[in-house]
Design brief:
By secondary structure, the protein is of the alpha+beta class. It folds into 5 domains: 37 residues; 108 residues, Beta-Lactamase (2-Layer Sandwich); 117 residues, Beta-Lactamase (2-Layer Sandwich), CATH 3.30.450; 176 residues, Reverse transcriptase/Diguanylate cyclase domain (Alpha-Beta Plaits, 2-Layer Sandwich), CATH 3.30.70; 253 residues, EAL domain (TIM Barrel). It is 43% helix and 28% strand. The chain has an 8-stranded mixed barrel with strand order 21-22-24-25-26-27-28-29, surrounded by 4 helices. α11 packs antiparallel against α12 and α15 packs across α16. The N terminus is likely disordered. Ligand C2E binds next to β22, α16, α17 and β26.
Length: 741
């Protein structure tokens, strides 16, 4: 084909066609001339352009609208020539987009940049689609500005296409509708709110109810009709005084708002707490138009608050304040005492042998006892005084407003303590079960803030401990000497920890003799030989080793040493029949592997099990009677026997005594001491002896110091003795010398 040859579109006309059915339609007639081999040929193309014309009319119409809007300053308009890619923005578009015409030229990029990133795809898609479908589009989207502000705009766009469907130009209008959008939003929110869970009540400026929502009807129990036109006063519970409502109104009038907790009455009469916010609503002229009250029922919250408070500050069993609440009250009491300079006192109470009752009668019975103790305690104190349960069987009583004179305050406290001791010592009937218990009471007086709360409690605790040591059912006042004793104790503990590795323990042997005075064996008694302290008595350190757990290795050492001695005596006629009694502590006995320990020591030492006797105390066996019995049986199977030490000082119940696989009962020295002078003690000893006879047990008396005591015991059926009359505890060499005599 030669140059310049090919089709050339010469002209294009729009004419009106006439359809066969008589209807007229627009037609585009295009005539093209074709120069072929130097000759011209002409072709004509006919197109039905009805659709295009309609679009144009619409475009024109829109154009008018745009112009009109532009004239009113509401709309921005833009035009994109898709053939030349030229884009034009009206001033209003610049204004809406907040772009400076001097710095930004109209471009699709600049346009996209102001569109909210989340809306970009949508806007893009709307435009692309409208070109594809040849349909105008109308879209609402956001603009996002550098400072974070958002505008809502509405865009309308229409495009023009050529006969082949190729887009020629797009014309668009942009309208800033932020205000309307937000207003509509508010309306939507308001409508949603009114349907919400929260109860809403609206009144006129005179507080006549205009409207309530469903939630309010549900909350108050009144229907909307019943409330309309009424004053909200009809909802009042009567729980708040006039001053409360007066304060509420004055705040509402001053600040336009009130919120707080308020008790209302439901239609059925029930009073309930709610949280309410009242807002005064003003019109544009600052004229009060409505009050809007939002309320939510908080009875559930109140109740759980109450429950949480109860749990946090009260003991669930006895309903008494717990330690936390008491500490709080104590702090207050100290502050008050500082101002009044009057004394206060804390009484620390611990029930004696509570554990025994708990273990033998079950926890439910123990609980009943604690409840009853709490009741009695509360009955004994004045209204301003506090009773608390610290846990377990420990109670605390806080006395306030005592005399400012120390002596007088002490006397007052002693009187109350005595009353408590007496009251708690009365027999208890718990579900037909009769029992008896007593308290040990430690007292610590205070005035002002001389000491801190924790110290004060510690002092009362120490005093209580002293009351226990003094034989229970007693009252002790804390005094600084006790503290000193305590300090000594902790120093002792440090030394005690190194006693075993430093080989400072010794075993002393105290003979046990028969009626003829012949030694049948000995009890081994522990001594601690300290380089500075000298010979320390077990009474001083055994309790401490129990508390610290040191008793376990120490007790094992005693057992090993005693067994080694038995073995050493085995080949000598003088000593081979001797038995050794070894004291076993509760903590040691209840070690999980105690049985295995005994077995191992016997095996390793080669001592005859029949020559070994273990002394247990009542409190040891009562700690867990069933387990104790099982353990004792296992040990007895090895051939070892058992003696019940200090018998008569504890619980001494025949009931459990019958169940325990004991061999011997050891009458405590406290009964033996006054056996010849005190008829009571004489009677007790006789009873114990009779009891052992009935149960088929051996009996031995300890602490026999005089001939008279020995004779009395012998006469009444006890033929085994231990005591200073025969020998003090001595080292093994001396004991052996004694045997030879
Ligand atoms: P206990 O087992 O009741 O031992 C009897 C205590 O009475 C011994 O005191 C003994 O010296 C003392 N005594 C003996 N005869 C008389 C007497 O005629 N008159 C007087 N007034 N006292 C006499 P000791 O040796 O001070 O032991 C005190 C307690 O220490 C023992 O009481 C025992 O419970 C404990 N204890 C001693 N050695 C050990 C031990 O190796 N292990 C354990 N767990 N406890 C031990
Ligand atoms: Mg003993
Ligand atoms: Mg004893």
């Amino acid at each position: 084909m030669a140059t310049g040859e090919g089709p050339i579109l010469n002209s294009r006309l729009e004419i009106t066609g006439l359809h066969r059915n008589g209807h007229e339609f627009p037609v585009e007639l295009s005539i093209a001339s074709l120069k072929m081999a130097g000759k011209y040929e002409f072709s004509a193309f006919i197109h039905d352009i009805t659709g295009r014309q309609l679009a144009q009319i619409e475009l024109q119409h829109n154009q008018e609208l745009l112009n009109e809007a532009q004239r009113l300053g509401q709309l921005g308009s833009w035009e994109l020539n898709l053939v030349s890619s030229e884009l034009r923005w009206s001033d209003e578009v610049y204004r809406i987009f907040e772009l400076d015409p001097a710095r930004f030229s109209p471009s699709y990029e600049n346009f996209l940049n102001v569109i909210h990133p989340d809306d970009r795809d949508r806007v893009n898609q709307a435009y692309t689609q409208s070109l594809e479908n040849r349909q105008p589009y109308d879209i609402v989207h956001r603009l996002l500005f550098a400072d974070g502000r958002v505008k809502w705009v509405r865009e309308h766009c229409i495009s023009e296409f050529d006969a082949s469907g190729k887009p020629l130009r797009s014309v668009g209008a942009v309208q800033d509708i932020t205000e309307q959008y937000l207003a509509a939003e508010q309306l939507r929110i308001a409508a949603a709110t009114f349907k919400a869970q929260e109860a809403i009540l609206i009144t006129d400026p005179d507080a006549n109810i205009l409207r309530v929502n469903q939630a309010f009807e549900d909350l108050s129990g009144y229907s909307a009709e019943e409330l309309l036109g009424k004053n909200p006063r009809i909802l009042q519970s009567g729980r708040h005084d006039k001053a409360f409502y007066r304060a509420m109104w004055s705040e509402l009038l001053d600040t336009g708002k009130w919120s707080g907790e308020i008790w209302d009455r439901r239609k059925d009469g029930e009073i309930y707490p709610k949280f309410m916010t009242i807002t005064a609503v003003y019109d544009d002229h600052h004229q009060l138009t409505h009050y809007v009250a939002l309320s939510s029922d908080i009875s559930q919250r109140k109740q759980s608050e109450q429950e949480i408070h109860q749990l946090a500050f009260y003991d669930p069993l006895t309903k008494l304040p717990n330690r936390r609440l008491l500490l709080d009250r104590l702090r207050q009491a100290m502050a008050v005492s500082t101002r009044s300079s009057r004394h206060g006192a804390v009484l620390f109470l611990d029930m004696d042998h509570f554990k025994t009752i708990n273990d033998t009668q079950g926890h439910a019975m123990g609980d009943l006892l604690l409840i009853e103790v709490a009741r009695r305690l509360q009955g004994c104190v004045r209204e301003g005084d506090s009773v608390a349960r610290l846990g377990g069987d420990e109670f605390l009583v806080l006395l306030e407003e005592l005399s400012s004179e120390p002596d007088e305050a002490a006397t007052q406290t002693e009187l109350i303590a005595e009353k408590l001791r007496n009251e708690l010592g009365q027999p208890y009937t718990l579900k037909n079960y009769e029992c008896h218990t007593t308290p040990s009471i430690g007292v610590s007086l205070f005035r002002g803030h001389l000491e801190n709360v924790e110290d004060l409690l510690k002092h009362a605790d120490i005093a209580m401990y002293q009351a226990k040591t003094a034989g229970r059912n007693a009252i002790r006042f804390f005094d600084p000497q006790m503290q000193a004793a305590l300090d000594v104790r902790s120093a002792l503990e440090t030394k005690l920890r190194s006693a075993l590795p430093m080989q400072q323990f010794r075993l002393y042997y105290q003979a046990q003799v028969d009626s003829r005075g012949k030694a049948t064996g000995a009890e081994v008694l522990l001594r601690w030989e300290h380089p500075e302290l000298g010979l320390v008595s077990p009474a001083q350190f055994i309790p401490l080793t129990e508390e610290t757990g040191l008793i376990v290795p120490i007790g094992l050492w005693v057992l090993e040493t005693a067994c080694a001695q038995l073995k050493a005596w085995q080949d000598d006629v003088l000593t081979r029949d001797l038995t050794l009694a070894v004291n076993v502590s509760a903590r040691q006995f209840h070690q999980t592997d105690f049985v295995a320990q005994v077995q191992r020591v016997l095996l390793e030492s080669g001592a005859k099990p029949s020559h070994l006797k273990l002394e247990l105390t009542e409190s040891t066996v009562l700690e867990n009677v069933d387990d104790t019995i099982a353990r004792m049986r296992e040990i007895k199977l090895l051939g070892v026997s058992f003696s019940m030490d200090d018998f008569g000082t504890g619980y001494s119940s025949l009931q459990y005594l019958k169940r325990l696989p004991l061999d011997q009962i050891k009458i405590d020295q406290s009964f033996v001491r006054d056996i010849t002078s005190d008829l009571n003690d004489a009677a007790i000893v006789q009873t114990i002896i009779a009891m052992t006879e009935a149960l088929g047990l051996n009996v031995i008396a300890e602490g026999v110091e005089t001939e008279a005591q020995r004779d009395f015991l012998d006469k009444h059926g006890c033929h085994a003795f231990q005591g200073y009359l025969f020998s003090k505890p001595v080292v093994v060499k001396e004991f052996e010398a004694l045997l030879r005599r």
